[in-house]
Write a structure and sequence with these properties.
The structure holds two protein chains of two kinds. By secondary structure, chain A is α+β, with helices and mostly antiparallel strands. Chain A is 36% helix and 20% strand. Chain A is built from five helices and five strands; from the N terminus they run ααβααβββαβ. Chain A has helices at residues 10-16, 19-24, 37-42, 44-58, 100-109, and strands at residues 29-34, 63-68, 80-83, 89-92, 118-122. In chain A, strands 2-1-3-4-5 form a five-stranded mixed sheet. By secondary structure, chain B is α+β, with helices and mostly antiparallel strands. Chain B is built from seven helices and six strands; from the N terminus they run αββααββαββααα. In chain B, strands 3-4-2-1-5-6 form a six-stranded mixed sheet. In chain B, α1 runs antiparallel to α3, α1 (6-19) runs parallel beside α4 (117-127) and α4 (117-127) packs antiparallel against α6 (164-183). The longest helix of chain B has 20 residues, at 164-183. Chain B starts with 5 loop residues before the first helix and ends with a helix. Classes of the chains: A alpha+beta, B alpha+beta. Chains A and B meet through α1, α3, α4 and β2 of A and α1, α4, α5, α6 and α7 of B.
Chain lengths: 123, 195
């Protein structure tokens, strides 16, 4: 019989992820997913789940995943902003879960913006 | 309904609570298998609505938001509930909070599927780690309860809710508990896993 997970087991998970807090002081990357009604209807929750899965798969820990409400660009939802420390804020539009591995590999890891999905840049 | 399933509607309605400056949001789902009925209640302690706004809130062209003038979340849920023979109700008092209730007849052909509740819950926990989220799922008297304060107590800090390892673990934990509940309790679950 498999052991049914207990909430207390979460303590160990957190311990193993604790370099997250250590990396924070040096400034870390933020990923922000638009999660207003427009975003949700366009599939933002699925995009966020895909981002979490991809970060976990690749063992990337120095990233903060956040959500935001509607910012008035509903036609481009799902919207994903990537902010790397010291670099312009890049807004990706019409992001699907299939785009997520590419954004993580190209932008987060290699530092190259995925140009064909960009709809905005803020310096 | 323009949102895919109930879990997406719950995410949306819970976000209304956040926007109403609530600090505590309770999401309760009760399923009565023999009556083919699901009841959903989302209640918050946010700023509430006055009678005027409350009477107009089911109208898709009403919102208190400034960035986009069309509010669709509540009309979606109302349409979904009423479209499958259920009911829909909002109660609110200024300064006290709002409570949204919807019921669904699960044997009706237009009843929306539940969808991925665990994904909705981790989205809420990760999106607003500073709120207190309480989630209860009841089936025929048995229940699963998640209280974000208890999770934070185990984690030691709220910011850890945003760690992807924590979010992934929580998603698995919620999924597992909901399956146990649906299968009829942990004894039955253990037996099914064995066979």
């Amino acid at each position: 019989m498999p052991k049914i997970r207990n909430l207390e087991d979460l303590r160990k998970v957190k311990e193993s992820a604790k370099d997250l807090t250590a990396a924070r002081s040096g400034g870390r990357t933020h990923i922000i997913v638009g999660m207003g009604t427009c975003g949700i209807a366009a599939g933002a929750r699925e995009v966020m789940t895909a981002i979490l899965a991809e970060l976990e798969k690749r063992g990337i820990k120095d990233v903060a995943v956040e959500t935001t409400g509607c910012i008035g660009m509903c036609q481009f939802e799902p919207l994903v902003d990537v902010i790397r420390p010291g670099e312009p804020r890049i807004t990706y539009g019409n992001v699907s879960p299939e785009d997520v591995p590419r954004i993580v590999a190209e932008h987060l890891i290699n530092g190259n913006v995925v140009a064909d999905k960009v709809i905005g840049r803020t310096d | 309904m323009m949102l895919e399933d109930l879990s997406h509607s719950i995410l949306d309605i819970a976000e209304n609570a956040v926007n109403a400056e609530a600090t505590k949001i309770v999401i309760e789902i009760a399923e009565k298998l023999d009556e083919n009925k699901i009841t959903l209640i989302v209640s918050d302690n946010g700023k509430g609505m006055d009678e005027d706004l409350l009477s107009r809130v089911s109208d898709p062209f009403v919102t208190s938001r400034k960035t986009r003038r069309v509010g669709l979340g509540i009309p979606f849920l109302r349409q979904a509930a009423e479209g499958c023979g259920g009911f829909f109700e909002i109660r609110s008092s200024p300064g006290k909070g709002t409570s949204v209730m919807a019921s669904f007849c699960t044997d009706h052909i237009d009843c929306p599927p539940m969808g991925d509740l665990a994904a909705t819950l981790i989205t809420l926990l990760l999106g607003w780690p500073d709120k207190r989220w309480i989630f209860r799922y009841k089936i025929n008297g048995r229940q699963f309860e998640l209280d974000s304060d208890e999770i934070v107590k185990v984690l030691g800090d709220r910011e850890s809710l945003r760690s992807c390892e924590v979010a992934a673990w929580l998603k698995g934990w919620i999924d597992e508990n909901l399956s146990i509940l649906r299968l009829g309790g942990s004894d039955q679950y253990a037996q099914d896993k064995k066979s």
